Amino acid sequence: MKTFHQKIPCRATYHFSCFHFCRIMKYTYFCVAMTRHTLMKLRITASPLLLLAALFIGCGGHGHMRQLERLEAQLDTAPDAVRLALDSIPLATLDGEERALYAILRTQADYKCYVPLTTDTLIRHATTYYNRNRKSYRAAMAWYSLGCVYTELKHDAPAVEAYLQAQSLFPDTTVRYHRLCYQNLGQHYLNKNMPDKALAAYTAYHNVAEDYDHLYADIGLAQAYIYKSQPEQAREILKRLLLHRDEMDTLSLGTVLFDLGKIEYGFYKDYDKAEAYFDQLIALYGPDVDDVTYWFKGNIAESRGYSDTARCYYEKAMQGYDEVYLQYNCARSLLYLTLDSIAQPKLYAYIKRFEQTSDSINRIERRTEIDEIHTAHHMELQQRELAQRHQRFIFIIVCLLASTAIGVLLIERHRKQHYLRLQQELQHNQARIYKMYQSIEEKRDNGSLAREQILALYRDNLSKSVDLFKKERWATRLQQLSELRSKEIPSFTVNEREQLVEVLERCFVNVITNLRDEAAKQKRRLKAEDIHLCLLLSLGYSIGVIRECLTASSDDVVRKRRVRLGDKLPEDILLLFSV
Fold first, then answer.
1. Closest by alpha carbon to 365, among 554, 578, 156?
2. What is the pTM (predicted TM-score) of this model?
3. Are the C-beta atoms of 135 and 169 separated by less than 8 Å?
């Protein structure tokens, strides 16, 4: 038996598919059109193709970014799990911010899990990606992680530079990694024999440290005081810490015992106490004790005159890990023991002088290297601050200019609106005047009452026209001339008088119409000079100014014209214009 689909002819199947395809395309076009319409309302233009591309991109995933962000949140609590998850993300598929964040997470996870960091190639992806001139947490972590790599590699100078850069990029100085920068900087300063800078770093670390950080801050302070040859302060801090030895981890307790042994041996020459601390340290670590302890034990034996015992300790210390300074110190101690067995005082003195000079040169070189880094870092911070200050200054200038422009536009808009409103009110008054005159002529209104209402409208028109004229620059100029004596008023040019007449006739157009209507009712004809005289008198200008505006020969001519106005206009109209 044939199925339903088999009964449909081929042509019908084609039309059926086209029908659904057209519906899908119509719906897609509708969505695109609505989106474009919405963007057009927001003054944004976009082609349908771009909208479709954005739609498909938005529907797609974000690569590994979300997974990396989740791992970033777990970095401090579960670094082992983060390392395991990062192993499943192929680095070759990452680019841009994903690659930079991966580099930070991988470096920090390895560092926290005590995996040796042997190269800065990976973390350099992060420091290159993030802008060092813009503060952000990830930019700061990129440079902090670079410092951790250099700490592992025992490169003090680049580590100091990285930690200083990281500190300047943290937007929030309360985060733990910002505090750890102080601790790491202090240790590197001590490695470069710069106790003053180390003490400043550890003091800052102690001031911002939280509960578990105070122990490391105090140990760092004690070590800085040892380098500054201030054993009393260092011993006081370390003995206070030793009172809580049960609460300390093995590494911290071993550091405290070791530093106390160094103080008793190096500053107070109390070999018994020093040896007691070193013996506690050996008992604490067992066979894993640091080889430097054996070097100190050899020094104590040598100071007591036990040359063979000292030689044994030195040789035992040299058999440990390949640490340059330890190897150097052990070899030097063995050399001195050998020289003591040979009666060559001059050779001994020459070697001693050579070592002192070499140490001084190395100390100067190490300090100079760090000082150059500090100078470069401070210069960079000053340049960055100067650039930010310029940006703020430019922003303030732009805001002031924008505010001024907006203010000017608003004032101009208000002036235009006020001008249009006055024009509309004048037109409305004029329409009412014509309607009242029509009522009087048709005897439908009391003449005296209508006349009072007409005079009130005349007065209102005149007041509004005066307001319009006062907004012109001519009003200010004529007012200033009115304050001068009549003989001091300068003469107007022909062009100036034409401009003044144009402004007067534009501002008082309705008033001029009313004056001519009132003169026509008196069967008189007003000249242009008479109308201009009425307008200038209503503005309150002096006779001298009116004389120059009307091109009169003298003030008496103006006064005579003023008197003749009484023959051309009604008395109530003359009173409106202060004639």
1. 156
2. 0.54
3. yes
